[in-house]
Amino acid sequence: MELCNVLKYDRSLYPSKAVFFYKTAESNFVPLEAEINRIRGQKAGFTEAFTPQFKSKNLAPQDLAHCNPLILEECYVPPNVEHIYCRFSLRVQANSLKPAGCSEPTVFALLEEFAATFKACGGYKELATRYCKNVLLGTWLWRNQNTGNSQIEIKTSSGNCYQIANTRQLAWDSSWPADAQQVLEELSHEVHQALTDPAVFWHAKITAKIETAFCQEIYPSQSFGEKAAQGEASKQFAKVKCVDGRYAVSFNSVKIGAALQLIDDWWDVDGSKRLRIHEYGADKEIGVARRAPESKQSFYSLFVNAELYLAELKQQLAEGEYSISPNIYYLFAVLIKGGMFQKKAEAKSKSKAEPTTAKTTTSKATPVKA
Where is the sequence biased in composition, kind Low complexity (predicted)? Predict the structure, then answer.
């Protein structure tokens, strides 16, 4: 299969922002707010005292002892509050069953058949289970997973309510207790239906109840903007404005989606970590691409083999024995993520334009009488 000049997929997972709040005797929703702190930072960086060639700068003894004034936004649990809550919603649609746009009808038909066969082989069940694992483990809490015991509650549009009593008792590769395993299977079944049936409109509200220590620090998303103006905080958090005018700190939806998509352990047989789904297997921790083009394991290198993978799935379907290749799981995880997967149209050779000769008209000047 060749990549088209136009080929795109709508994403299938739609997470919302995740909002931090706490509860009091008077209210079930009090937004967790950020505070601005002015601190005297230390001059401790390498460039403060050394050149790029590792030579000492000509400094006075007092230069490195001076403070570096900083204005930062920080977020802490209010006194006498024992639990912080974080809530987001998730909508799932069956958008990976066919392209949202494709310039080649034959490629469109091939990809639609590829998805239908993958569905018939039960491939979407594995992907749904992996997404649900990240929901139930609280992976989307990021650094806040380490604040204390966390309870996860999921209320779905199907009218069901699922609960994990403590995420610290679970791990990705470990054997889950019977009650947690049942929650995983039932929730995965709902997500699987939403991923494979366009008639299903499914969503869920996910809430984490985080046990905290006294005045413990909370880590929302940081907002990236232009350089801070004079007197403004250089580090600012993502926030959501509440109906009462207050601003609750939050995770942006992209960060929630990134956590749900931490499922790629197919990038290597001995892969030591799960990566966020990415066309080139970006590993942000060490700044490398695990699926670089030369590895032949990038999305595009595998995607052009869709016909071969389709034949492989058809054979498994005929034999009734399913052993889906990790490469196929990875391909559909990328399609669920969505995006533009076309190649650019080749530039057409421009025909040399014939030189144009402009006619020059000369008008005779009329003498002016004095």
Answer: 354-370
Element (H, E) at 194: helix 178-196
Determine the Cα–Cα distance for residues 183 and 156; give it in Å rounded to an integer: 12
Distances (CA, A) of 62 to 58, 66, 67: 12, 7, 10
CB 6 within 8 A of CB 102: yes
Q: How many CB atoms lie within 10 A of CB 367?
A: 6
Contacting residues for 94 by C-beta, under 8 A, at least 6 apart: 12, 194, 195, 196, 197, 198, 200
pLDDT tens track for 138-154? 999 999 998 889 999 99
Question: CB-based contacts of 304: which residues, under 8 Å, 6+ apart?
Answer: 1, 2, 3
Token readout for 345 is 């149209």
Local structure of 128: helix, strand or coil: helix
The answer to whether residue 363 scores a pLDDT higher than 50 is: no
Cα dihedral 278→284→285→289 (10° resolution) = 60
pLDDT, tens only, 203-216: 999 999 999 999 99
